[in-house]
Design goal:
Helices cover 29% and strands 39% of the residues. β2 and β3 form a beta hairpin.
């Protein structure tokens, strides 16, 4: 089986993930990074794909909330059974005491969500909820 075929299986296995957390400050439910990592990690392991992450710090500075950090995440997905690889790149940012951790978590979560086209269970595009995420949450797939 090729890496593309294995990644298609991963996509099928993580197509929908139920929301398990709530942000009371802005009033929305979401899927935690831990749940994304557990679901995607299990599917990758089952399909014999390893993930090799690398973080690039794009910016780190003081701001009104404490600190601001922006990172780019490169995830190399490597097929254990061949020399095939895919590169997923995502960006994230964060503010406050744990800005670097928030930026890294955001990048990883959005990498999984966008690369594997994961729907969050109970997503309703007509519910009128707006996203407060950064415009930097872009994801690219490269072979």
């Amino acid at each position: 089986m090729t890496l593309k075929e294995k990644l298609l299986k991963v996509m099928s296995e993580v197509a929908v993930i139920g929301k398990d957390s709530r942000n009371d400050e802005v009033g929305y439910d979401y899927v935690s990074a831990a749940k994304f990592n557990a679901a995607v990690g299990a599917a990758l392991r089952e399909n014999r794909i390893i993930c090799l992450p690398h973080i690039h710090v794009l910016e780190s500075r003081d701001c009104a909330e404490g600190t601001f950090a922006a990172v780019e995440l490169e995830l190399v997905l490597a097929d254990v059974d061949s020399d095939e690889t895919f590169l997923i790149t995502a960006a994230g940012d964060g503010r406050g005491k744990n800005s670097m951790g928030t930026a890294q978590t955001m990048a990883m979560k959005y990498a999984w969500k966008m690369a594997f086209v994961v729907a969050e269970k109970s997503d309703d595009p007509d519910a009128g909820q707006t996203s407060k995420t950064s415009d930097k949450n872009n994801v690219w797939l490269r072979k």
